[in-house]
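Take a sample.
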Amino acid sequence: MNSSDARDALPDALRELSEYRYPVGVNPARLYVQGLAEGKSRSTGKESLGMLVSIGSADSIGWLRFPWHQLGPEGVRELRALVAKHYPSPASANLRLAALRGALRWCWLLEFIDRDAYERAKEAAGSVRGYAPLRGREVGHDELTALYGACAADPDQVAGTRDLAMLRLLFATAIRCAELVAIKLVDVDLEGVRQVDGERELAIEIVGKGHRRRVIYVVGRALETLERWISIRGRKPGALFTPLSHVGGRRARPLTGDAVRHVCRKRGAEAGLKRFNPHDARRTAAGELLDELDVVATSQYLGHAKVETTRRYDRRGARSGRRAARVLDGVESG
């Protein structure tokens, strides 16, 4: 399909849109992306805006020169329909629509559109409803034992200890992969370890999505392994978890998210596990937390802005059903 045919195939409200050059320093799309957390959030924001332009424009104008303020409620509504058609998964569609609402908000803040136009456009860019199969999986207790054992059995003590400390921290604190690699040694104050209810505890403040700060608590074997890793890593400033080539050196640059995913694949294969990724540790921890805490407390600990996000992490399924059946049986017996 050539450019002319592609343009004719677009809905009316999108067909006439063309490249727009915003004044320097007041590009709504750029400011939206700059307001996101550095790393994966920004790259996802750029990708989402790029996909919106690809879907809603016949020209290869790029997300920085797309006329976001000219969409109007009808254009937004038609773009949302195209996004919903393009992405069968509601989660994928809503990720793009969130970026659209972010760019529209900056159009209003920069006074390209008035408040009424923004509110109507934002409403038109509402989330897509629907069901999609849950992504990822839970990692079982026996699998964790095998996973940790594979790290401990590594004849390379440096690699084994680092990977064990990373994996224990992921599963024991439910932090995101991006949050893990962002932790610096200065954030980990081992002198601040204290006794709480007879157990040693270390508090670490991290910065999550949306620049939201929260505190995670490291206890038990996760804390012991972390202390062992730091004694091997040394006290030079920089990232807590570094490439093995940097141990003992002058630099301490952080691992990448891809490096952490590689560790999960490598150690999982050594332990004979079905494939899992770093975020599956968060999914697993969320299920454990929901067994013991209410959804609001779990949401706060996970650093979710909305409780609805936490509900999507609930993979207890049949386990919850069996517990409910026993509770109700006890009520009837009583």
